[in-house]
Design brief:
Blueprint: H1 10-21, H2 26-33, H3 37-45, H4 47-56, H5 59-62, H6 73-88, H7 95-110, H8 120-130, H9 146-163, E1 171-178, E2 205-212, E3 222-225, E4 244-247
Parallel strand pairs: 3-4
Antiparallel strand pairs: 1-2, 2-3
């Protein structure tokens, strides 16, 4: 028997609706479950909305007691489609990445007059709506298969010979984030030392490192910062620096820079 004020999941509501659609009377379902007949009538009127919510949300979201729809359903659908595609491709996604993508998609959808802001509260509601949880990434799961890795050198060698590439066209590059003000998260000390915490410094640059085959010319590392003309470069000839410098928003790699 249902108690007064009891909340029901989307799955439970659809189950009651299905019983009525399959031939049971509303009065009979109400009597057997204790759910007021007026409540059941309301669910019947909202059947399409409930089905859409069940389809759009993750299974965990379907099992939640209350599932308020997104304020901007177009943005919500586009962002969740991007999220699903990215996760299926094995791309790790942090909350900040999702917020940046949400901001970008909203701007694409609504144009330059867009006033949307991807806040922490918005991210929390998105996660709750779609049953998105935070978890630790296990890198080994998607590591290359040994057989494929062992076979690749022969494939690469054949490609180099068939296309006629020379040594200067063969290179390997990778990028990494350098948090140049980040302090260690563990300290050495005696029992008498007072261990106090501190906020992690988030200032970072992106570094692109490239290597060629031995015997060919070398490339300088590429450093990407957030400022076009950092004050530390004033009166400095950049050509004499041991690295090339470029800039982008948030000091991230972009397609244009790459």
């Amino acid at each position: 028997m249902a108690s007064k004020g009891q909340a029901y999941t989307i799955k439970e509501k659809l189950k009651i609706v299905r019983r009525v659609r399959e031939g049971e009377s509303q009065a009979g379902v109400s009597c057997s479950t204790g759910i007021p007949a007026g409540t059941i009538r309301g669910w019947l009127k909202e059947e399409k909305k409930l089905q859409d919510l069940a389809f759009e949300t993750h299974e965990i979201g379907v099992l939640q007691k209350r599932n308020k729809g997104a304020t901007d359903s177009t943005l919500d659908a586009a962002l969740f489609a991007w999220f699903t595609q990215s996760r299926n491709g094995g791309i790790p996604l942090s909350g900040e990445i999702v917020k940046i993508q949400g901001q970008k998609l909203s701007l694409d959808i609504h144009g330059p007059d867009d006033t949307f802001r991807a806040s922490t509260g918005w991210l929390w509601r998105l996660q709750k709506r779609h049953g998105i949880k935070s978890f630790t990434v296990t890198r080994e799961r998607r590591s290359p298969a040994p057989d494929a890795a062992n076979a690749f050198p022969a494939i690469l060698r054949e490609l180099i010979e068939s296309e006629g590439y020379n040594k200067e066209q063969i290179y390997n590059c990778n990028e990494t984030g350098l948090y140049y003000k980040l302090l260690p998260d563990k300290n050495l000390g005696t029992k008498e030392d007072k261990q106090t915490g501190f906020k992690s410094a988030k200032q970072r640059v992106t570094v692109l490192l490239t290597c060629y085959k031995p015997g060919t010319h070398k490339l300088k590392p590429l450093v990407i910062g957030s400022a076009q003309n950092p004050s530390c470069f004033h009166h400095v000839n950049r050509e004499t620096l041991p690295a090339n410098y470029s800039a982008s928003a948030n000091a991230r790699m972009t397609a244009k820079i790459f």
